[in-house]
Amino acid sequence: MTDDLTVATYDVADGIAWLRFNRPTKKNCMNPALNRRMLELLDEIEYREDVGVLVLTGEGDSWSAGMDLKEYFRENEAKGLGAVRQAQREAYGWWRRLRWFHKPTIAMVNGWCFGGGYGPLYACDLAIAADEAQFALSEINWGILPGGGATKVVAELLPMRDAMYHALTGELIDGRKASEWRLVNESVPLAQLAERVTALANVLLSKNPVALKATKDAVRRVREMSYDNAEDYLVRMQEAANSFDNDGRKEGIHQFIDEKSYKPGLGAYDKDRAVG
């Protein structure tokens, strides 16, 4: 059990788990205690039957200003390589868990998102930012490269020229620019952020949960595959998904073909009904 249970918190309402960085006086910087607690909370939340979507956000005026320079870097480096590696395993471990989380995930970026914060940002399936949010790869400003996956994130999501500019200058960009560069899906005024994220979460809650998990995994996996390998993988993935929920697929086809109660291009079938 971690030494501080308050560094990250969550609550559940209407099918949505609201998971929060909770070090507002430290701009929600990630220290070892927070990283350990996040892993524990993901374990608690992942298979709860009353949770269909996870939203990751921050308390106060920040999402996360990255890694805690004092606790994560200086104090661990003073303890030696073993402590450094342990801290890295804890941080990268919960980001990896979040990438492959069983439910869809949304980053609700309400404020500062710097450096190491790009790890969990990328781990979330979708990301909505406040126009007023501030993003930066700040590592260059204190003399290191953007590590912890941050360089991979910008290389993956941004065009090369934008990725280079972002990494080499350390300059701030706001939520609107982050959306333009595709670090996030979109940005909205801060006053509308929670409402927009809730609406998006409700869209996801209306979908078949087995199909959601298969789809989010497929999008991440096929990016590194050739077309032929991806084609074969997706066939096998659909067959595997059918073994978990073949009735759901049949119900969707039944409602479309037999009942004509919905159109797949315009909305989802009623997943809460039994097979007709």
UniProtKB/TrEMBL annotation:
Keywords: Isomerase. GO terms for molecular function: isomerase activity. It holds the Pfam family ECH_1. One of its GO terms (biological process) is isoprenoid catabolic process. InterPro entries: ClpP/crotonase-like_dom_sf, Enoyl-CoA_hydra/iso, Enoyl-CoA_Hydratase/Isomerase. Belongs to the enoyl-CoA hydratase/isomerase family. This is Enoyl-CoA hydratase/isomerase. It comes from Sphingobium chlorophenolicum. The lineage of its organism: Bacteria, Pseudomonadati, Pseudomonadota, Alphaproteobacteria, Sphingomonadales.
